[in-house]
C-alpha cells in the first residue's frame, strides 16, 4: 500500500521550494538558487535496498528571488550548463558565481558520481562556462566548503571516492576512508587563482583541521573561519581560523573553552553578519537529531551566545546568503532525519530571514505599507513612483497566493 505524505508537485512554486543540496548566492541585492534535488512521496515501509524517491532539479534552470518585490523568477541558463548536481559549493567574485564539485546521478565507466569540475556562471547574462585551469585539480567530492578572498576561489574538505586517489599527482591532503562506502573524508585546501587560471595548493602552518564534510565556512577581512562538519561517526563543534595572509591555522578555538558553545553538527550554515560576528543556524547532530538553534559568535572576544528566535524551525542541508548588511536569508533544506530511509522527508519550504541590525528606511517603508495595505493603500500615491511599483507587485503577489 502506498502512503503519500503529500501530493506530487504540480506547480512551479512546489518545484522551487522543495529543494536540498542546492546552492544559493547573493548578487546585487538578489538571491540566485541553483541545483539540488527534491524528495518525492514514497513507501513508508522501507529497506536499505529500496532507495527513496527523489528527483534532481533542472540544471539549466536558475531561480532568482528579489527581496524588495518578494518575487521568484525562473531563468534559463545558457552556455556550458553543468550536470544535475547536489552537494556542490558556490561563491561569488565580481559578476561571476563559481561552482565546484558535487554529486551527480549520472553513472558511467568514465565518470564517478563525485566531480571536481569548476564552472563559472556570469550572473548578468546567466551564461555558464566550464573552466579548465592548469595545475593539480582538487579531489572529486561533494559537501565541501568554499569561499572567495581577493582574486581566489578556495575549497576546503569534502567527501569523495577512494578510487580517485590513484589519479591524483602528489596530493597534499589526508584521506580517511569510510567503513561502509568506497569514499572518505578529506582535508584538502586548494584555491583557484582567477587571474592566472590555475589551481594552487598552498602550504600552511599550524594545526590543520581534521578531514571533514558538510561543514561551513565564511570570510571576514583576511581570515576564514570554519565550523563543524562530519568526520567518521562524529559531527564536530570545532572552530578553526586560517589567516589568508600568512597561511597559519589557529587550532581548535572551541577546545578547552569553559563557556557554552554550540553542539557538534553538520549540514548547517555559518555567515558573518558584521566584521566580528557570525551566526550559525540548524544542522544535524551526532545522534541524528535535526537542529533549530541559532548561535552568534563574536570572534573578537572568542565568545558564543545562543539567540532565541521564535520563527526558526528544525532544518538541515539548507542554504544561506546575506542580501543586506546584518541580514541573513535561509532557504530550502530538510526538516527531519535525512538518513532515516523508513520515513518520507519533509522539505523546509519557507524562507527565513534573520536580522542582526536595523533594516534600511526603504525596507521599513515597504514592509510597513504591505503589512497595513488595507489602511495605507489609498495614500500610496504620495510616495515615490519606484516604491509604488514595488508595493503594487507585492500586493498582487499576496492576492494571488491567498
TrEMBL record:
This is Kelch domain-containing protein 2. Keywords: Kelch repeat, Repeat. SUPFAM superfamilies: Galactose oxidase, central domain, Kelch motif. InterPro entries: Gal_Oxase/kelch_b-propeller, Kelch-typ_b-propeller.
